[in-house]
């Protein structure tokens, strides 16, 4: 047998075969480190002021409000939280003294726990009877204060007098209503002040002594 012949030239590359099946998914890699904390964003706009707290007052039983000769305030009534004291006399200076005595229903003042601003007042009166009333009675409600450090002497706060309308005219109809309110007030109160809601009445004409009775209620907003 003779020697093998020389290797022939390489033939052309054959056609590419079909892709093989996809391999199985590899394991999840290790979680990378956390990125750096971003810078703090700008401060948002200031929110709207809160509406404040509402302090409610209701007499429970009817109160009696009197005038003396001249139609000016005689005795007042102190209205609390579902109860009241009637027949309270103003001092010569127009102040009210709550010193009282043992067993006397008199203290209807509350203490202010934080500084704030009285922004509004509303008051309501529903008549139950007229006692010696002639003419038309104007019902009034006002906040009195004993400023911190508080004592038992209370003075009317200027700007808090609410004059209710319409007037209560004799002969009184059971359930005759008078109401009034003040808003947009800016009256500061301090922590430790004591506040008191006082109802009274006056009679313009005829300016004689008289009395009117009814249910009294009110509310104040402190922001």
Automatic annotation (TrEMBL):
It comes from the Bacteria. Residues 1-44 are annotated as: Disordered. Coiled coil: none annotated. NCBIfam families: exospore_TM. It holds the Pfam family Collagen. InterPro entries: Collagen, Exosporium_BclB. This is Collagen-like repeat preface domain-containing protein.
